[in-house]
Design a protein that fits this description.
With about 80 residues, the protein is an alpha+beta fold. The chain has a single domain (about 15-80), classed as Cell Cycle, Chain A, CATH 3.30.1070. It has 3 helices and 2 strands; from the N terminus they run H-H-H-E-E. The chain has helices at about 5-10, 15-30, 40-50; strands at about 60-70, 70-80. The chain has a two-stranded antiparallel sheet. A hairpin with a 2-residue loop joins strand 1 and strand 2. The chain is extended, with a radius of gyration of 20 Å. The protein starts with a helix and ends in a 7-residue tail after the last strand. The mean pLDDT is about 80.
């Protein structure tokens, strides 16, 4: 019976796929709503500087502004590739 399960499986509708994509977009917009305008530019510039020394892709650098009590903390995360230094 397990062999033919793929034939009878319910297919996800395009509406549910679109709904899930919209949820992702809304979540991203909400996370950047209070963020300063310079964060995307800062992320691009950091990526350019790091690329001078190490080959990484754009998703390897994440820049976020985090509230820590009364202070704003700039959180920078860089995923460096494993290999020779």
């Amino acid at each position: 019976m397990g062999l033919f399960d793929f034939l009878t499986a319910k297919k996800t509708s395009t509406a549910s796929i679109a709904k899930e994509r919209l949820r992702i977009i809304v979540a991203q917009e909400r996370s950047t709503r209070g963020a300063p305008d310079y964060l995307p530019l800062l992320q691009r510039e950091l990526l350019e500087v790091i690329r001078k020394y190490v080959s990484i892709d754009a998703e390897a650098v994440k820049v976020d502004l985090v509230k820590d009590g009364d202070h704003d903390v700039l959180d920078i995360s860089v995923a460096l590739p494993e290999g020779k230094a």
